[in-house]
Design a protein that fits this description.
heterodimer, A: about 300 residues, alpha/beta, four-stranded antiparallel sheet, 10 helices, about 35% helix, globular, B: about 220 residues, mainly alpha, elongated
Chain lengths: ~300, ~220
């Protein structure tokens, strides 16, 4: 099993294409031995960030290091940082077994036991040609490569969206199992937070190339809460403080008010008329959307 | 590393052998169809071209190998090795495997040259043609494999490579250059071009290939 506590650091990374800037001054550390979820809307920069972390290209500005060495040019980093995503499609003419051969040779932590179990879990046969697989099965091949690689840092780029619901659950279980049995740092991107919400320890939220949040998942969800109350009370609360959203119409029997925990504590709980309404936790997906909503509401520099 | 990648890329080896066989077949086919033509010219160009499909496949597979954990340096060494291997096999076939070519132009094959008794040694010119051919093929193969990795100039490289082949071989034929100073110039020039392409384009091209493929796709992240 992998026992490598080397860390990956992203420092001031900016990636600019001719069409625009994909990432703006991103800085964070991947905590060793944790599962990190990188979330964001379409075109938020998730895949660009992961490819940059994998060393597929140098950032326009900033640096990505593994164990204090540049990830793109250091052999140890190349061997220990694995990326799986759509790019694996370049193997289209090979069988699953042959796709895995170079990985087995080049990945020092390759785990054959895990390889066998993951292939069995996903119902994949080594002799099956990659090009003959449907999108869900191809995504499972990507996931199997990443999991079996045993790499101390493994980056899964949008692996789950193409998977069927059943396989998605299997992948999350395998991810959690791989994490429990080793000290690997696993980074997972997805547009759908719910896919992996149950297993992530840390959360990175990107929006239009900017880093909105990098925090433990529990800390993120604690920043927001919901109040379930009748419509008139919901409107009263909305008039007194900055809520994020009210779910439900005035004619509905109940409304759900989403708001930042800090505002609840300073405005609602301090108000004798409102403090009888308890604050309930939000899901990780809701917390991400609230973070993005607050960011888009806040006037940005230069606007 | 090169051998490991080669072993893992059975299609590349098979493609290489298949194209060489096709080239030899094409040579004899041309000789039958057009006995009074210039089959040697056709063959030389075809043989040189035969080294390219496997290199093209290598360039394509480079991305897969990179994802599997290879460094750009390892990939480039693999491509250099493959280019040398392809050029060597191609050279041996041209100068030793095709008897008519050797007899017609009185070119000693490298193997015969090495095995020749010392008193029959006729000077370094014996080796000029095979070495020139090897240098040409090696340089063009490197140029192809590295330039193909860069999409933007890949098309120009392909067209340019073919034109260079014809420009060098067509006017007088390969034999017209034999025994003159030109082969030495060609060796130096082609090796220089190969070296320049290697250092200038090589490593960065492999990365640029992936970078361009990234930027060419709509950002889905």
């Amino acid at each position: 099993m992998v026992k490598d506590s080397s860390s990956m650091s992203v420092r001031g990374v900016t990636v600019a294409y001719r069409a625009g800037v994909a990432l703006k001054d991103i800085t964070f550390d991947v905590r060793p031995g944790k599962i990190t979820g990188v979330f964001g809307m379409k075109s938020s920069g998730r895949s660009t960030l992961l490819r940059c972390m994998a060393g597929h290209f140098d950032p326009t500005l900033g640096s990505v290091t593994y164990d204090h060495a540049p990830v793109r040019t250091t052999k140890r980093a190349r061997r220990n940082v694995a990326y799986v995503g759509d790019l694996v499609n370049s193997y289209h003419s090979e069988s699953i077994g042959r796709i895995m051969v170079p990985w087995k040779s080049l990945r020092p932590h390759w785990d054959e036991t895990l390889e066998n179990s993951v292939l069995a879990t996903f119902g994949l046969k080594r002799r099956t040609r990659y090009s003959s697989l449907d999108a869900s099965s191809k995504a499972c091949v990507h996931a199997a490569l990443g999991l079996a690689s045993g790499s101390p840092v493994t980056l899964f780029d949008d692996v789950t969206p193409a998977m069927s619901a059943e396989r998605r659950e299997q992948f999350v279980e395998a991810l959690a199992s791989a994490h429990e049995s080793s000290d690997r740092s696993l980074v997972v991107t997805s547009q759908e937070v719910d896919d992996v919400a149950d297993v992530v320890d840390d959360v990175i939220i990107l929006h239009q190339g900017s880093l909105l949040s990098c925090t433990p998942a529990a800390d993120l969800t604690e920043q927001f809460g919901t109040l379930t109350c009748d419509p008139s009370r919901a409107r009263t609360i909305a008039e007194n403080c900055d809520v994020i959203d009210i779910i439900g119409s005035p004619s509905s029997p109940i409304n759900v008010v989403h708001m930042p925990t800090a505002i609840y504590r300073s405005r609602v709980s301090a108000n004798a008329d409102l403090n009888s309404v308890p604050l309930e936790p939000v899901t990780l997906a809701d917390a991400m959307w609230h973070m993005i909503t607050l960011h888009t509401r806040t006037p940005q520099e230069g606007e | 590393m090169m051998w490991r990648l080669l072993i893992h890329s059975r299609p590349i080896v098979l493609a290489f052998l298949a194209f060489l066989l096709l080239t030899v077949g094409a040579y004899y086919a041309l000789a039958v169809v057009d006995p009074n033509g210039e089959p040697t010219l056709h063959f030389v160009v075809l043989a040189m071209m035969a080294t390219l499909p496997p290199l093209l496949l290598t360039s394509g597979n480079a991305r897969a190998w990179y994802l599997a954990g290879a460094t750009t340096g390892e990939l480039f060494r693999a491509i250099i090795g493959l280019a040398a291997l392809a050029a060597a096999v191609s050279s041996v076939i041209v100068f030793y495997g095709i008897p008519t070519f050797s007899y017609q132009y009185n070119v000693a094959s490298p193997i015969l040259f090495i095995a020749r008794p010392l008193d029959e040694y006729q000077g370094p010119a014996d080796m000029v043609a095979p070495l020139t051919y090897f240098a040409m093929t090696f340089s063009v193969a490197i140029a192809w494999s590295t330039l193909l990795a860069n999409r933007r100039i890949g098309v120009l490289a392909r067209v340019g490579g073919v034109l260079v082949c014809f420009a060098l071989y067509a006017p007088n034929g390969f034999a017209g250059l034999y025994g003159m100073a030109w082969p030495y110039v060609l060796i130096i020039v082609t090796l220089a071009i190969g070296f320049l392409v290697w250092t200038w384009q090589g490593r960065d091209s492999l990365v640029a290939m992936r970078h361009q493929s990234t930027s060419a796709e709509p950002l889905h992240g």
